[in-house]
Amino acid sequence: SNSEVLEYAVRELLWYRCPEIFFKDITGWEALPKQKLFLRTITDLKNKNIIWPSARETGKTVTGGIACIWFPTVWASINNTSCQVSILSGSLDQADRMYEYAQSFAIHPYVAAKLKGDPKERITDFIDGSKIVRHSHSVKNVSGIHPDVYFCDETVQISEKVMSQAKAGLSGQKLGKIIYTSTAYPENYLHHFFDIWFEPEKFHFVRVPYMSKLETTWVDLQRFEWEKQQQGASDDFAANYLGEVRKPTRAGALFDMDDIKHKCTIYGHPPAFMENYPTYLGVDWGYVASFVLTCVQKIGDIYYIIDIFGKSGIKAMEQQEIIDAWIGKYRP
């Protein structure tokens, strides 16, 4: 009705200035302080590159889903233009989760009125030409894409080759934003996400303070205290429960992690994965992480470590699926 159109037009102005109110109106939930700060930071037009580490189960993916809706609706409407948002994650399942959150919010009458047909498996189209696109984790799928906003969830699991290709394709004509969120798992310390967090000025990023499980309203305090007693001083607890970003304390007993990170040709600095060169995949089951994969490539007389993945608590079937995916991704 005309009254609804007028009401949403007025509401849009409020949502544009206060995205946390958009969060509440669409989801029905009150944004937590760090979620509010994150939304304010990424919707501030002067902030082009944003990084936000957070503990597990603190609502970063649902907050990202709301942001993915805000840009092609509120921002696009106020600026009388279109906006393309691309979602990328280290795993297709994680990208699916953020995209599914965005899809679920699309049933709100304000959003639904702007849709061009029903949301599809990987693309949601809007009448004004805006889009939300979910990408799989590969260079091929991010090549030739020029979104206005790139949203990278669980960034530490995205290979640097894919990250570099994605950032290179970012369109600077309108917004030109890239947003990194992740839990800073210590086994991923070699990832560029850590470099950015420790030296944001060098990489031109704005940091949003990390978020702990204790800052949520749904934290299981009994479980939190039990985990704190069991592993409170560990790097895993710091990342998964406190949301902290830190250099692994276990590194240094046999080698210096910073020497590995900054003084060796490692992790695609340069080069990243190149076809037609000998490529080796290594699998290790060890103490620090119960399942580790390494991709090594020989170019000339030098062996380059192209990619590293490590995680504990993965079942055998899932390990086999990850190995199969790496064979497909890194087969020359």
**Given the C-alpha coordinates, what overall shape results?**
globular
Which ranges are low-confidence, i.e. pLDDT below 50, for 5 or more consecutive residues? 265-270
- How many helices? 14
Report the sheet with the most strands, covering strand number, pairing sense and barrel closure.
7 strands, mixed
Structural class: alpha/beta
Write down how many β-strands occur, each being a DSSP E stretch of 2 or more residues: 10
The H/E string reads HHHEHEHHEEHEHEHHEHHHEEEH
Average pLDDT level: 83
Rg over C-alpha atoms, rounded to the nearest angstrom: 21 Å
Q: What is the straight-line distance between the termini?
A: 58 Å
In percent, how helical is the residue content? 40-55%
The oligomeric state of the chains shown is single chain
Kindly report the spatial arrangement of strands forming the biggest sheet.
Answer: 3-4-2-5-6-1-7
Beta fraction:
15-25%
